[in-house]
Amino acid sequence: MNKNAYTVTQVNQYIAHMFQEDFVLNGITVSGEISNLKYHTSGHIYFTLKDAASQISGIMFAGDRAGLKFKLENGMKVLVTGTIGVYQRGGSYQIYARGITSDGIGDLYIRFEQLKQELSEMGMFDPMYKKPIPKYAQKIGIVTAKTGAAIRDIVQIARRRNPYVELVLYPALVQGDGAAQSIVAGIKTLDKMNFDVIIVGRGGGSIEDLWAFNEEPVAKAVFDADTPIISAVGHEIDTTITDYTADLRAPTPSAAAELAVFDYQQFMESLAGYKEALSNEIQDKLHTARQRVSDYRLKTGKYNPRTVLLADRQRTVELEGSLKNYMEQKVREARNTLEQYKALRVRLDQIRQDRRHRLEILTAKMELMSPLKKLSGGYGYIRDSEGRRVDSIKKVQNGDQLITTLLDGEIISIVDHTVKREEP
């Protein structure tokens, strides 16, 4: 190694020492416009401070944020007070901010706020115009750059959640000259193709990088589209005009894919659960209905005249069968004796007559048991004013109203007095 050569570390340390010894650089205030702003999870704030011709990187450590009274935004004009120092590991210099105050609003920020105010007054941000995002989208259009993290993240998440969803990309310019026109063309093209939803966006960047999504033609194309549109521009802290006119804002392209693509596995599990629940419900209702029908059959079958008559007929058939067998047996035994045959005929006639007589008696008994028969015989059914059956003088008092049901109507009467029947 050449003894006269310096290491990179030595050079950076020497330059850092020069910065530290410089009185001006140790208490300097620099004016400029905030860009590439990033609030880190550690609490540090990273940013770029720029003017029309140059820029410098900056950082405010978490311990110095106590004096910051407002939230920084890309495009803000600020005064940054701190120290210019060397980041030795990267070989670059930057301003280490101890305090930041507002120094007016940057040109881009002014344009952003003016267009935001104008479109808001036109009603383009009104929730009443927001179209619902389909829950089960099958065709999804995407307007973004054909390369980059945004399309990779969307495709990766869509394939993980639902490999059957159809994704169609319109490769658009998302920054620089012609970006706004390219995005508008993509929205209008996909809007005519009957997609369920369209994702419009790109990955993160500075306010300049994202500016195409703050252009009025893009905002109006999003608002005028018949297809529901999800805006997915930049990171969660980035906000564009497109976010306000879209039907739904996603904090990142990955989040947009989560919102647009339904989880196929979860859908199938839910469908299976619904199917099982519906099947169980149907089986329960069928079981209940069958049990109810069975109960009705048991209740009606016991007292059904048809059932009783069929039972009598069955008994008659059984008796006739037995009688026929008996006759054949006796005929064979008494074939040679005419007198015995005649006696058997007489006996058979008597048995038949007896059976018919018994059947007539049973029929008469059934008729006597009929309530209508009793009513037609001069009997009546008595109940009180509350519909309760009255079968004893002990259940009524003088002045009570009684209702007597006869064959052709009812008699309403008032109890005058009662006479108790004397026991024989």
Summarize the SSE layout with pairings.
Layout (H helix, E strand, L loop, with lengths): L7 H14 L6 E12 L5 E6 L4 E6 L15 E12 L4 E14 L1 H15 L17 E6 L4 H13 L4 E6 L7 H13 L5 E6 L13 H9 L4 E5 L7 H5 L2 E2 L3 H8 L3 H40 L1 H29 L4 H32 L1 H6 L4 E4 L16 E6 L2 E6 L10
Helix pairs in contact: 3-7, 4-5, 9-10
Walk me through what this model shows:
By secondary structure, this protein is α/β, with parallel strands linked by helices. The chain has four domains: 8-105, Nucleic acid-binding proteins (OB fold (Dihydrolipoamide Acetyltransferase, E2P), Beta Barrel), CATH 2.40.50; 129-262, Response regulator (Rossmann fold); 305-369; 373-414, no CATH class. It is 43% helix and 21% strand. The protein is built from eleven helices and 13 strands. It has helices at residues 8-21, 107-121, 149-161, 179-191, 216-224, 241-245, 253-260, 264-303, 305-333, 338-369, 371-376; strands at 28-39, 45-50, 55-60, 76-87, 92-105, 139-144, 166-171, 197-202, 229-233, 248-249, 381-384, 401-406, 409-414. It has a five-stranded mixed β-barrel. A five-stranded parallel beta sheet has the order 7-6-8-9-10, with helices on both faces. α3 links the parallel β6 and β7. α3 runs parallel beside α7 (253-260), α4 packs parallel to α5 and α9 packs antiparallel against α10 (338-369). The longest helix has 40 residues, at 264-303. It is elongated and about 160 Å long. The relative contact order is 0.06. The model has no long low-confidence stretch (mean pLDDT 85).
